Amino acid sequence: MRSGRALRLHTPPRRLGVRGWVYAGRYGIDRYLYLLQRVSGLGLVLYLFLHIYETGVRLRGEAAWTATMALFRHPVFVFLEFVVFAGFVYHALNGLRLIVAELGWALGAPSRPVYPYRSSLRRHRPWVYALMLLSGILLALAAADIFALPG
Amino acid sequence: MRESQWWLISLGAAALMVLLLTVHMGLMHLAGLLRAAGVDLGDVRSFAAVMARGRSAVQLIFYLLFLAAALYHGLYGLRSVLLEVTPPRRQGLLSGLVLLAGLAAFAYGTYVTVRTFTG
């Protein structure tokens, strides 16, 4: 019997699959922003294919196009239009933040690894707040245009 | 090409998309706000307006660039997400299917854009 040596068990890595995207322990706000980036991206890809198809309706003539645009004035489609716009605003602004973060820009000078550490996530936190504020302003403007203003 | 190079192209497409899509979204969805600011574009979604824009050479180049950037960035992201839940032996097939879908969508979008331009 070996003494003074820890017994190591070989355990396979935890494979959470899609569930792991949502929760796999202690996720911070940055991880959830990334999850929302993926969700908005998938929604926009789906919309993109529908949109490419829908823009082709113009080739069928004015009557078909006018009927399609009349359908899109239905309140459900107007709401979905806002959802697409919201997805775009968030995905674009958060995407710009992620480009800056992943390319290591705007991190500032390196500091000594003395506790409490200033991780790159903490250094980029002001960008997160700016992103939320700007997204809120743009979404408020979009809501005013899509739901309130005529035409 | 290495995967990191495909990824960098996706970032480039994203940066291009921020500009192009902002213009597109502003024109298509914020016409009311533009009107309130004194810029009246009329009914941008009417058949006449759509066909008039489609016959412009600037719009032709804009839409083709836009379509390429949007499809590349979107489908690269979709592929990245799906690769995480795809077994290794099927990943090549997944990449091929995504590429086919992108080429098909680009071909159709280009056809619509060029047909509108040429009338």
Features:
heterodimer, A: 151 residues, mainly alpha, 3 helical TM bundles of succinate and fumarate reductases, B: 119 residues, 5 helices, 81% helix
Shape descriptor of chain B: elongated
CATH architecture of chain A: Up-down Bundle
Strand content of chain A: under 5%
Radius of gyration of chain A: 23 Å
**Any idea how many domains of chain B?**
1
Question: Unreliable runs of chain A, pLDDT <50, ≥5 residues?
Answer: none
- Any idea of the CATH topology of chain A? 3 helical TM bundles of succinate and fumarate reductases
The counted number of beta strands of chain B is 0
How would you sum up this structure, described in words?
The complex is a heterodimer of chains A (151) and B (119). Chain A has 151 residues and is an all-alpha fold. In chain A, 64% of the residues lie in helices and 0% in strands. Chain A has 6 helices and no strands. Chain B has 119 residues and is an all-alpha fold. Chain B has a single domain, classed as Fumarate reductase/succinate dehydrogenase, transmembrane subunit (3 helical TM bundles of succinate and fumarate reductases, Up-down Bundle). Helices cover 81% and strands 0% of the residues of chain B. Chain B is built from 5 helices and no strands. Chain B has helices at residues 3-29, 31-36, 47-54, 57-83, 91-118. Chain B starts with a helix and ends with a helix. The interface between A and B is large, with 36 and 37 residues.
Question: How is the topology of this model organized?
Answer:
The complex is a heterodimer of chains A (151) and B (119).
Chain A (H helix, E strand, L loop, with lengths): L18 H4 L6 H27 L6 H10 L3 H28 L17 H4 L1 H24 L3
Chain B lengths: L2 H27 L1 H6 L10 H8 L2 H27 L7 H28 L1
